[in-house]
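Structure ticket #2291
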Amino acid sequence: MDSIIKTVAKQSVALFRNKYTNLAFSVLAAPALLGISNMALAKTVVVSSPEKQIVVELTDNNQGPQYRVLFQGQPVINDSKLGLVFQSLGEFGSKFTIEETQTSKVARKWQQPWGERQWVIDRHNGLSTKLSNGKYYFYVDIKAFDDGVGFRYRVPKQADLNQLNITQELTEFSIDQADKATAWWIPARGWNRYEYLYNKTPLTKIDRVHTPFTFKLDNGVHMSIHEAALVDYAAMTLDQRRDGILRADLTPWSDGLKVKTHAGFSTPWRTIQIANNATGLLNSDLILNLNEPNKLGDVTWVEPGKYVGIWWGMHLNENTWGSGDKHGATTDETKRYMDFAADNGFAGVLVEGWNIGWDGSWFHNGDVFSFTETYPDFDLPEIAAYGATKGVRLIGHHETSGSVTNYRKQMTDAYDMYQKYGVTQIKTGYVADGGDIKRVDADGIIRHEWHDGQFMVNEYLHSVTEAAKRQISINTHEPIKDTGLRRTYPNWISREGARGQEFNAWGTPPNNPSHTTTLAYTRMLAGPMDFTPGIFDLAPKGLDAVNRVQTTLTKQLALYVVLYSPIQMAADLPRNYAKHPDAFKFIQDVPTDWQQSIALAGEVGEYVVFARQERGGKSHGNDWYLGAITDDTARKIEIDLDFLEPNKRYEAQIYRDGDKANWRTKPYDYVIENQLVNHKDKLTLSLASSGGTAIRFKALNKR
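Resolution: structure written out below.
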């Protein structure tokens, strides 16, 4: 009898799996025969993506709910646990069974006020499943897109549920054939937040890692695990348990709890981006589509653009943040930068080190900062008035050194002061070791929190919403990772969250040639990054120096297209741009807001080619730009120009590596040339070691 039951159950499941790929939604229950086990009675619900590329199964059994994911008919995520553990209630998982389901279909597009593309397509099938143990219940919501999957937990208000403390999330990602997969990753819960060089290893060699976590299966399928809409919850890192089984590991509070919440909450979306190749990940809008629409209303005051700043000189030790003979943030120096910005078409000037507190031990004591008091040699009203005559805005800066209670106490007055003087963008900083963010309780006790714990998730968002009340945008450095909240709060205009350009000035080792070719497929999947490209003096202390920029000059140009941000800095000193005025023209020309963006070619950590169409601007959206960068390996890449508009001619203004270019010995060997092209043409890009190509396709009259 037992063998007959097992055979019938297996045949039912096999028959179902052969047929459900033609369905958007399905429900399967194994035969309810006398004597069948509880496992055989398990119910499975299924949702597939609109083009049937992806299928997600959700099953209940005695061990708790599980899910698995198939891509083009093949498993990519094997049976993986789902559930939450609460301090007072225990596990919401085991003994919870599927009670009811609700399905949905969505096909729409929505408009970004700024971004990689103006219009985003949101097309997915949804499945909301209620799981109950007879007393309590929760939901698992799933959205299946053709480029990936998002799922989350919802715990509605219900009898006897009020305050809830989460001690663990049971979510797993069991990677199919993980022993053959390759991963690119940075460690989580470390002292340096997200600012590490990426490791490339077999997937089974990772321990605890940050997301986005990108990996490649042996069959060439590329995947990235991340999260979307992280609000009032702890950030998710991934902890490898048994080989290939990754568990969601939430960043804890100082008291060890993971999340402090109450009934009626939703978790962030757990996301799995899936593509046949590396560029498929780059062309995905999954993270944005899983965030809520704009909550701020009219945001025409959020202005993309390029800026310069009193910044790089501090990293080179030519100037200081603190007061004294080498003080960088002076009235005269700011005016000089404003003149340079006005002469070269830049919208703003960032000034760091203007406020009281930079002298002494600010790095270890952020309580010394005042955000409303200036040094005597920095006249804020005079500078604001001068910038207004030049059409150049002052970009503000607030460094907290991780003392967030001190910052919150002053935030209202500080933002009001900036609003008074026409400052519409602020770069905020939270320099502190991981786990050493300082907060002070109401009882005066000092606590230390992680940058990506629930407390700081809320602090970062608080600064953004307070700034929005004054029509100020925020560019967060030492941030919480991006999870697409720029859709909901468009004034969160950019952030850092990875090793930026400054590591080339003093970091040992500096960023290696593969750093930016890896960032494109890892950190940049989360959203914009203020990397601060555009260094022209690539080796200030000589080509043999340890700390230098390990790229060619044209790779610095290409970064403006490859590493997306609606605000881009021309990071070098003005005098260094004067040495290469012909190459500097590309930085002057390249926009920061795009009509559309297309990743054309690439492999993780090796190379990437992006094409982007200008949105509005001087060309009225007619011009395209291309950026291509490579790692330490020189390479030739043939690119079809079929992204260009048919029946138009373009002048391709090409900035490329010279024949002898090499980042180690000849980083300044570059060629600028023009070529007439149309959408039927091909171009061969010749990239030197750690080199790049930057192209402006300037639209000409129609034929």
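Closing remark: The domain at 41-289 is CATH 2.70.98.10 (Beta-galactosidase; Chain A, domain 5).
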